[in-house]
Structure formats: structure tokens, C-alpha cells
Amino acid sequence: MKCEIEMEMRSCAACGVVMAANSTFFYNRREDHKEFYCLNGHSNYYPQKSDAEKLREELAQEKKKARELQIQLDKAVMPKKRGRPRKQLTPLK
Ligand SMILES: [Zn+2]
Question: Which value, to the nearest 10 degrees, does the dihedral of the CA atoms of residues 30, 33, 34, 36 take?
Fold first, then answer.
């Protein structure tokens, strides 16, 4: 039986020692921002937003924009409330 695992390597931010783990591990750490440790015990984590997080935020902003535009559109299209008809004013002569 042959088993292939895709590995990634990263170096520790503190001491530079090379760490190797499967790609899923590093992907998950970029997503959850949890700490992981190098062989020398230094804590490492990804503080920056992952691509997935950036895209989720962008999507949320676009949805918000679409909602606002829909509200504006509804207001523009909705028939205006009809008040009492104005009395015809007789022009002064
Ligand atoms: Zn280290």
C-alpha cells in the first residue's frame, strides 16, 4: 500500500528551525489562528487574515451593498403616498 501526503515546510519565526507538516495542518492554522510550536518550543501563529477570511468579508460587504441598493430601488419604484388632493387655487386677478 502506498500512501502519499502533501507536506509543507515553514520556518519558526523565532529561531528559524524548519517545521514540516501536512498541508491541511498549516491551512487550518491560517484559518483558526491557533498557536503551533517549533521543535524548540517557540509559539508560532498566523495573525493575518487568510484568503478565505478576506473573501468572506468581501462577500458580506457586497451583500450589504446589494441590500442597500435594493432598499433605494424599492423607495424609488414604490408609488408615492397620495395625500389629500390639493384644492385648486383660484388665481388672483
Ligand atoms: Zn523556534
Answer: 50
